[in-house]
């Protein structure tokens, strides 16, 4: 369903992603781990074209972008609709309520009617356990609740793939579980997801495949059992020893 071929990304002279190749089947959960600065976030941002890759192809469903050629704004806009992104820092509109945050994209980008957008948003907020908080503003919500609004907002665009960029790393420890529970529920429902996280226990539980990145490369990939219990590469072994 997702195919990444020969993806690279430079920021000026710094090459942050080096020949990334990855295939993801529909309904699979991919967890990306690796040291800070290894390129995990940049890879995710390239999938959502928040960063423009320097070279490579990305295909999602039947849409492809080839970055060796000039890509049009329209192609990028169409492509971006395929993915829903959840950020570390939630990025909610502070002056909009929870339900207004979730309705915003469907109304402005998908041209949904207000009534339809409101009804879908209410269902999604219910699904993430915030049915009683739909009229609250972000400042009236805990970090975990704000992040669950962020997940509902991404789901409201009806994406093919959900991308999570360290969704719990800004949260107090006691709030991490409620967000991971929602992500797990989506996994059980068959949502295709790519998740960058430092939560190794969660990675083990939810991942179909774990990818270890270092220095802009995918160093190793495999099922959670293989990566966490018997990593083949020295760099993966070192990383896991340091964090476990
Ligand atoms: P990770 O998510 O694994 O911590 P990142 O993808 O955030 O890694 O960053 C990889 C490298 O790219 C780091 O060296 C970082 O400083 C650099 N980098 C990320 N974004 C930018 C940017 N917008 N401009 C310049 N360098 C960047």
UniProtKB/TrEMBL annotation:
User: PROSITE patterns this protein is in?
Assistant: ABC_TRANSPORTER_1 (PS00211), ABC_TRANSPORTER_2 (PS50893)
Please give, as recorded in its UniProt entry, the membrane topology of this protein: Peripheral membrane protein
Q: Which UniProt keywords apply?
A: ATP-binding, Cell membrane, Membrane, Nucleotide-binding, Transport
Provide GO CC annotations from the record.
plasma membrane
Transport: present as a keyword of the record?
Answer: yes
Q: What SUPFAM superfamilies has UniProt attached to this entry? A: P-loop containing nucleoside triphosphate hydrolases
InterPro entries referenced in this protein's UniProt entry, alphabetically: AAA+_ATPase, ABC_ATPase_HisP-typ, ABC_transporter-like_ATP-bd, ABC_transporter-like_CS, MetN_ABC_transporter-like, P-loop_NTPase
Domain named ABC transporter is located at: 2-240
What domain of life does the UniProt record list for this protein's source?
Bacteria
Output one GO MF annotation: ATP hydrolysis activity
> Which Pfam family is one of this chain's hits?
ABC_tran
What subcellular locations does the record give? Cell membrane
Please identify the protein, giving its name as recorded.
Amino acid ABC transporter ATP-binding protein
